[in-house]
Amino acid sequence: EPEVTQTPSHQVTQMGQEVILRCVPISNHLYFYWYRQILGQKVEFLVSFYNNEISEKSEIFDDQFSVERPDGSNFTLKIRSTKLEDSAMYFCASSDSALGGELFFGEGSRLTVL
Amino acid sequence: SQQGEEDPQALSIQEGENATMNCSYKTSINNLQWYRQNSGRGLVHLILIRSNEREKHSGRLRVTLDTSKKSSSLLITASRAADTASYFCATDGGNEKLTFGTGTRLTIIP
Fold it and tell me: If contacts are CB pairs under 8 Å, which of residues 70-109 in chain A contact chain B?
């Protein structure tokens, strides 16, 4: 069964360092998302991406964050200068439809900022 | 309060009993979805109910939707230990992104 894969599963970084989280969405999906979940809290929307551009982003997704689909298969989330409060689980998701279709999630990348 | 709030926050029941979780939301929706999350894992889609549907079944799951009250419920019948997880409702608010609720942490006691 097709699945969304994410790497790394866990990354520890120093505050101020750049981090890139990688995702391989399901191959025939066209809509891509990043969500994050701070430990014990709700799953929060960060950004949606379609047709090689951001279609929607949340207030959390400030200019420290960027997304890219560099090669037609990978979908990356970059945090330029990490802060302590960026520590969270980051989930990539993909979908074959817009407007609230089923999302297929990866297992997440746990980011720990020290 | 937040779009998509589940109650109760936590629920513990004996194996074999039924578990009911509720979700309330604030904006208009195209559909409402329920997801499950095992501890430390990704979210898994369980069921989607469209705004013009009132009830939907999938195996041991039954979802209801009342758009006039902006609420939904998820019923898991004949619970099993493997059903232990957090359950989230998610709404689309008429746009692309899904907004997740705060979740119900379900514990099934063997």
Answer: 89, 91, 93, 98-108
